[in-house]
Give the backbone structure.
Amino acid sequence: MPSLKGRDIVVAEKQLLVDFNDLGTNLDDFEGLALGPVLPDGRQSLIVVSDNDFDPATPATQLFAFALDIAPASETKEQIFGTLEADALELTGSNNLVFAGEGNDIIDASLADGNNRIYAGNGDDTVILGTSDAPLEPLRDWP
């Protein structure tokens, strides 16, 4: 990617925010998550689903609902979506919401103005962050 030549690259590190195994359930995996409606007390709801992969030996399909205390964010300028293939996404501007999707993607926000929220998705992805960018990793096995 031309924008990377001659640049000092700082690799983003994953940080486990929540260990869903601490809930005391026998979870196999989480298949999906979505932000639900804002609750009457002002907190944001988060809905998480885990299925049994059609395996009777694993727990049944489960739905979890959480209430999140989230600091207000600035208005999102643009939503950017990748494809099912490998993508090279070079961001510009600020406050973008990026969903890279499947494939081994390269998401470069280093030249953007910052405050982007980046969901890399599945695949062996490379994310290059800029000022105040936040990687939003999918819920999957953590090292």
In short: The chain has a mean pLDDT of 80.
